[in-house]
Specification:
Helix content: 25-40%
CATH topology of the largest domain: Rossmann fold
Shape: globular
CATH class of the largest domain: Alpha Beta
Largest sheet: 6 strands, mixed
Number of domains: 2
Structural class: alpha/beta
Strand content: 25-35%
Number of helices: 9
CATH superfamily of the largest domain: P-loop containing nucleotide triphosphate hydrolases
Number of strands: 10
Bound molecules: adenosine-5'-triphosphate, magnesium ion
Order of helices and strands: EEEHEEHEHHHEHEHEEHH
Amino acid sequence: MPILEVKDLKKKFENTQVLKGIDFELEKGQTISIIGSSGSGKTTLLRCLNFLETADEGTISVNGKIIFDGRNPVTDPKELRKMRLHFGLVFQQFNLFPQYTALENVTLAPLLGAEAADKDAIIEHGKELLNQMGLSDRMSNYPHQLSGGQQQRVAIARALALKPDILCFDEPTSALDPELTGEVLKVIRGLADKKTTMIIVTHEMAFARDVADTAIFMDDGIILEQGPARDLIDNPKKERTKQFLSSLSK
Ligand SMILES: Nc1ncnc2c1ncn2[C@@H]1O[C@H](COP(=O)(O)OP(=O)(O)OP(=O)(O)O)[C@@H](O)[C@H]1O
Ligand SMILES: [Mg+2]
């Protein structure tokens, strides 16, 4: 059974149909990369998966259980928070809390409402995650004392701290200089090696090809083409995909 199953997902903003029926599946431990031109609906898709937007139609299932159904969407805030925990999201603009240290940023959400007895374990886990991100000497730094690449790695640790089933990235390196991009891609690659289930929206084609198992090409609100990442990026079948990929290499 796939860990994630998205069926016929549709989303409209005012008069614009932004998602026109998205279907895909993701197996546990696998990574999907999503590529496509600006405005094709990539961010909207991630936002719908993370319950930051409510899709109009379609279903989202995690581990075989429907967690979103456009015919009967969950509106109860408590229930919604629970559903949201299936997914973690790392944004392009790290969005760390400026008034908290790296470690506090990572542990804040899991500490909320935790039993006193669990607090030490949560803090230990937060430290472990920052270690994994190569930030063991940066735990007490505030965001403004960190480089963009370091901030993004804190954001990744923060997303992992809630132990999501699926970790989503929305262009995690597009706000970074090339040299900082490399360090962030490296930690994401490490997560893929450890079989973290991920969906990565990216403009880094070499990365999309090498790290992901499957690639999806989105165009104007639909999935125009999907398949093994290497095949799709090296040998796209559709004319539109070829055009998009060759426009990037110019
Ligand atoms: N809250 C909103 N209200 C109205 N229109 C929106 C909203 N969010 C997105 N859109 C529109 O939906 C379309 C898809 O936007 P989206 O951000 O999902 O594209 P994208 O593929 O992520 O693009 P990019 O590569 O530039 O990030 C665009 O035409 C955008 O203007
Ligand atoms: Mg986007």
